[in-house]
Amino acid sequence: IDINRYVDGQNLYGLETLTLNNMVVDYSFVKERLAYMVYDAVDIPHPRNSYAEVYVNGELYGLYLNIETPDEKYINRFYDDNTGNLYDADYIMYDNGGYDILDFYESLAPLFELEEGTDVGGEDISEIAEVLTYAETSGYFMSDTEEYIDWDHHTRMMAAEMWVGQIDGYSLNRNNYLVYFDPSTELVTILPWDHDYAFLRDRDWGFSWLNPTGRLSSDCVSSFTCREMLKARIRQVNNLADGLNLAQALSDTDEMIRPHIVADPRRETDIGTVDYYQSYLYQWISTRSEELEDKWGL
What we know:
Oligomer: single chain
Distance between the termini: 45 Å
Number of strands: 9
Strand order of the largest sheet: 7-4-8-9
Number of helices: 10
Shape: globular
Radius of gyration: 20 Å
Structural class: alpha+beta
Strand content: 5-15%
Order of helices and strands: EHEEHEEEEHHHHEEHHHH
Largest sheet: 4 strands, antiparallel
């Protein structure tokens, strides 16, 4: 919702944009809320979120997740300098039914959508692509890329993606992510977004965390040094996630929103299905760290 689309400078409590998710894919109604708690514990930028009961012209439209829109205010919460380029990297759909999935390749660089910053025609994306192309065959992958890519950030982000089972994010599907070029470090970082398809197992969707498709993540797994860094981050995320008491957070959130789920006139599932998917999440929370330890031999 663009607050100032028709009235210049108009805002709602300082916000120019609202992003509302109807959670039609998430029958538990709590996936994004729990996922972002894990990113927060690992110090990865993520949108704040809350729930909203939405009315349109007095008619109840149901329960929505109110997600912080990525803009300069969002960036300012995590970075010392919020003047860098912020890109939205969702896939591009064409009228003929075709589409492009975005990643760090020179041919795709102009397709990244600039959300904040200065339009440079995707030259900064293209530069990262060139660096990767060279480093992938140089024999010195980490040293050739560390002046351009924040690998500390990326391995933490990737480990968090893995813990929350984000099968539709950057690492596995090259989708639902943001790119920020931090002027204070001159390093590129990838930020998570849209977790309707979180808490799902890679193998059930034809993916593997041992063989990710996102170029940065794939290159990291292929590099011995980066892979060892990633494994250390997986251990860290496991410890932090296990200490969050996500089961209690799930219970508390459900208690808060359950009356609004019941009252939602546009709810596309029955309450029994909500209970089923929340039970699934309780099971995930109790076993996920052990699963990752087994997968990576930790």
